[in-house]
Specification:
mainly beta, single chain, elongated
Length: about 120
């Protein structure tokens, strides 16, 4: 079992920055790929950023150049640095941990942290 706890959300003005954290416990963090998703009211949950166990990253087109995902395996934590925030970035942000080995799959979600971008 893996427990995920997000933090760092809040209210920020357009153009501002926030740094989200996702602390994990309960398993070997370094073997998991880690993702950040978000869900705005009335919308489906969407993938924002991803980082593999080896550190390769990928981003949604809407956040490229503004967001950066990183991980600290020593602290069992993944981060999402969000810069130049826009009102359309307003959403609940969720951390996801997943790994697979053949037919064996593990997939875990945090409870989310709310980010509100508004003046």
């Amino acid at each position: 079992q893996v427990q995920l706890v997000e933090s760092g959300g809040g209210l920020v003005q357009p153009g501002g920055s926030l740094r989200l954290s996702c602390a994990t416990s309960g398993s070997i963090f370094s073997i998991f790929a880690m993702d950040w998703y978000r869900q705005a009211p009335g919308n489906q949950r969407e993938l924002v950023a991803a980082i593999t166990s080896g550190g390769s990253t990928n981003y949604a087109d809407s956040v490229k150049g503004r967001f950066a995902i990183s991980r600290d395996n020593a602290k069992n934590t993944v981060f999402l640095q969000m810069n130049s925030l826009k009102p359309e970035d307003t959403a609940v942000y969720y951390c996801n941990a997943h790994m697979s080995a053949g037919d064996y799959v593990e997939n875990y979600w945090g409870k989310g942290t709310l980010v509100t971008v508004s003046s």
